[in-house]
Amino acid sequence: MPSDSFGNCNVLAVHRSFSLCLCREYFKMRYLLCLGRSFSCRHVRFCHQSVYNRHSSPRRIGVDLGEKKLEISSGKFARFADGSAVAQLGETSVMVTAVSKTKPTSSQFMPLVVDYRQKAAAAGRIPTNYLRRELGTTDNEILTSRLIDRSIRPLFPPGYFYDTQVLCNLLAVDGVNDPDVLAINAASAALALSDIPWHGPIGAVRVGIVNGEVLINPTRAEMASSTLNLIIAGAPSSQVVMIEASAENVLQQDFCHAVKVGVKHTQLIIHAIQQLAREQKVTKRTPIKMFFPPAEMVERVQKLASEKIYAVFTDYSHDKISRDEAINKIRLETEEDLKDAFPQAEPFDVIESFNIVSKEIFRNLVLNEYRRCDGRELTALRTISCEVDLFRPLHGSALFQRGQTQVLCSVTFDSLESSIKTDIITTALSGVKDKNFMLHYEFPPYATNEIGKMGGLNRRELGHGALAEKALRPVIPKDFPFTIRVTSEVLESNGSSSMASACGGSLALMDAGVPISSAVAGVAIGLISKANPQKSAEIEDYRILTDILGIEDYLGDMDFKMAGTSKGITALQADVKIPGLPLKVVMEAIQQATVAKREILGIMNKCIAKPRESRKENGPVVENVRVPASRRARFVGPGGYNLRKLQAQTGVTISQVDEETFSVFAPTPGAMNEAQEFISDICKDDQEQQLEFGAVYTATITEIRDIGVMVKLYPNMTPVLLHNSQLDHKRIKHPSALGLDVGQEIQVKYFGRDPTDGRMRLSRKVLQSPAATVVKTLSEKQSISMGSNISERSDL
Asked: What architecture is the 687-788 domain classified under in CATH?
């Protein structure tokens, strides 16, 4: 805008110039103008220019990550947002925006929403639904949104309860570089370059291992042969804020090395984003209010309830329900006293004062006295029991109990046609086309003694199921002839239900007779830490807990879930609640989880040590049926009629393997017997074997069609088409031109079966000549001494 735009301006001129301003100050000042407040032209010019400068100068910075270069830019797109950044790797580009309200909410938690949406246009496709629009939310979108959320949430300041939304917009996807890790880095840059209070930035990379070599941000082709898929988000000073990994039984030392290499490269991204922030001279806003209860209220709670709370946490006779009831009783008594002593206090301050004191007592019990609320040692497991083959009709079942966490797992087999087929957009973006193994996790409200809605799928259930599925997928045989579905229903929950699902799923698979390569067990590791008073981002002291309870997860600093076999790691997920974990703590957690995993596997092996040698009698059956080309038309039927009839009557599923082989899946052996009888009856064709090539037979017309006539050579034969072109030498448009009618007998010559489609080849035209011809007839009584009959060998 020219510098003299505001010269001799009036209210209308100011109003027009504001319409060009790309910032929220425009809306604030317009509102004040409507109230009759006046501003000088100098003041208006200052507001406009300061905000415009923040958004108008695009900046770009590159980060060398081995052979690849990550580029992060800002200042060009979405300048209304508080923060906006684009991350690009290869030809894949992701834009992320961050917006946070300036007015606090009434919630008692950080109201952060992260939405990652797959864009069909970014992959060069059009959605195939009716409206040709992106509808609903796919599993991949939800899992990636959770990935970003878990990476950025720990770095928001405590007490910052302002609605914040992070949106990820896929601009372009090249099919080589995956956009999920780019979205994490773009979200980090958008928040760091905004005025939103956030203790970032962070950096994220994907780490793979191909032929023993560690690769950073491998391509999709390289990931196809990688034994590790590790996504790690790092914070400044080589700290870790999030880990998500699936692996094909990777050894512990190799996994730890990959983590260290990944953290090293995240620091390069962090430095680049910090440089961008310095160049743009980012200034963070000061919130109107940070939600902390007054110190005098906290002190009063300490005097009133500290001893009572301590007594509950050191009473090892309590279980989850009784402990919660005892704490809630103390809470109600204390809150009543606080309301009387501080009548003007807000409800949040009253509730949070008690929470702070109870959390401090619980954590000090672990840090100072090395005691847990259930009496276990810091590295001890809860009591574990296992049981398999609970219900005979199920293909496989298991019950896994760890303390007060109980999970019932079942295995179901179905045909390979039942495998999950991803939509074209997910296929284009992630490369996954289908999968024949799935694990579905269910968490009903009664598992925690609550009442809630049933049905639908929330993000937590999807995330926990995906983690347990990652843990089991590497041990599933790739050539298994069925689609496998494991359902995991949490019946009781007191911590680490996802890892219990991995244990129960492994037992159920072995009970079902799936030849998995090794049993899989999982465990959750927790952390109680003490921050350095001078540097809150540093840990002064800490304790690592094995097999954490629900309360240890809620009041602790980390939920570190790891699963694997006796040899290596198959899945890992680390959720951190503090601004970062030192690498030393991560390595100790991996080691402690490895020891616990082996102990759990020992207990599971006492229940069932290896997969059943054969599947259960009532299990499904798969057989291959060879159908010669001569029988294929009869087997399939007109328009697939016979196949559809077979599947509807017997419940089997039929799929074609190659030209002559069909795979028949039957849910039970009885269904397979029915299908075999049906197939034998359909394909029964004894008299056709007696037909001679070149012989002439009497055929009966069964149907008149526009293109020809349908004829039978013998009574139980399936009618075949004799085309108009083979009825007579002259060209006809309809068989009626020759006076043909249903029931009429005509002579035809047999020329065998078509080698491509197996259809019977007949001709009446070749017989419409003066040459004498010997006619052969077939009936149910006439089937002997065919070899002695005379046949005419003439060509078409």
From this structure: Beta Barrel (2.40)
- Decide if 398 contacts 386 (C-beta within 8 A): yes
Helix (H, G, I), strand (E, B) or coil at 624: strand
Is the pTM here over 0.85, yes or no?
no
Please state, for a pLDDT cut of 70, what percent of the chain lies above it: 86
- Residue that the structure tokens 């849910």 belong to: 667
Residue of higher predicted confidence among 646 and 795: 646
Sorted by where each begins, the domain ranges of the chain are: 3-55, 60-280, 295-369, 384-607, 621-683, 687-788
| 621-683 carries CATH number 3.30.1370.10 | yes
State pLDDT tens for residues 647-688.
888 888 888 777 778 888 888 888 888 888 887 777 665 455
| Topology annotation, domain 384-607 | Ribosomal Protein S5; domain 2 (3.30.230)
Q: Is 656 helix (H, G, I), strand (E, B) or coil?
A: strand
Judge whether 192 and 256 are in contact, CB under 8 Å: no
**Cα–Cα distance for residue pair 362/626, rounded to 1 Å:** 68
> How many helical (H) and strand (E) elements, i.e. helices and strands, does the chain have?
18, 31
Mean pLDDT within 592-605? 96
Measure the CA–CA gap between 563 and 512, rounded to whole angstroms: 21
Q: For the beta carbon of residue 677, count every other beta carbon within 10 angstroms.
A: 11
Token representation of residue 590: 């991996």
Q: Do domains 60-280 and 384-607 have the same CATH topology?
A: yes
Give the bridge partners for 88, in sequence order.
71, 93
Phi and psi torsions of 632, nearest 5°? -65, -45
User: Any idea which residue has 């009496």 for tokens?
Assistant: 375
> What 3-state DSSP class applies to 134?
coil
Asked if 385 and 488 touch (Cβ cutoff 8 Å), the reply is no
In Å, what is the CA distance from 640 to each residue of 418, 560, 654, 760? 20, 53, 11, 18
What's the CA gap between 45 and 609, in Å, rounded? 77
Give, in degrees to the nearest 5, the angle at Cα 536 between 159 and 113: 35
Query: How far apart, in whole angstroms, are the C-alpha atoms of residue 4 and residue 755?
Result: 87
Contact call for residues 201 and 273 (beta carbons, < 8 A): yes
Tell how far CA 81 is from the center of its chain. Answer: 29
Q: Assess whether pLDDT exceeds 50 at residue 29.
A: no
pLDDT at 445 over 60: yes
Q: What is the pLDDT of residue 373?
A: 92
CATH topology for 295-369 is Arc Repressor Mutant, subunit A (1.10.10)
Helix, strand, coil percentages (3-state) for the chain, rounded to 5, are 40, 25, 35
Q: Is the pLDDT of residue 536 over 70?
A: no
Print the SS3 string covering 156-183.
CCCCCCCCEEEEEEEEECCCCCCHHHHH
d(CA 83, CA 168): 12
Return the pLDDT at 758: 66
> Cα separation of 767 and 750, whole Å?
11
Structure tokens at 464: 């926990």
Residue with tokens 């490895």: 594
Phi, psi of 71 (to 5 degrees): -115, 135
Query: Tell me, what's the pLDDT at 274?
Result: 95
* CA–CA gap between residue 405 and residue 502 (Å, rounded): 13
Given this model, what pLDDT does residue 626 score?
78
Give the pLDDT mean for 29-57.
39
- For 3, the token pair is 């510098």
60-280: CATH topology? Ribosomal Protein S5; domain 2 (3.30.230)
CA distances from 107 to 351, 355, 752 (A): 12, 15, 81
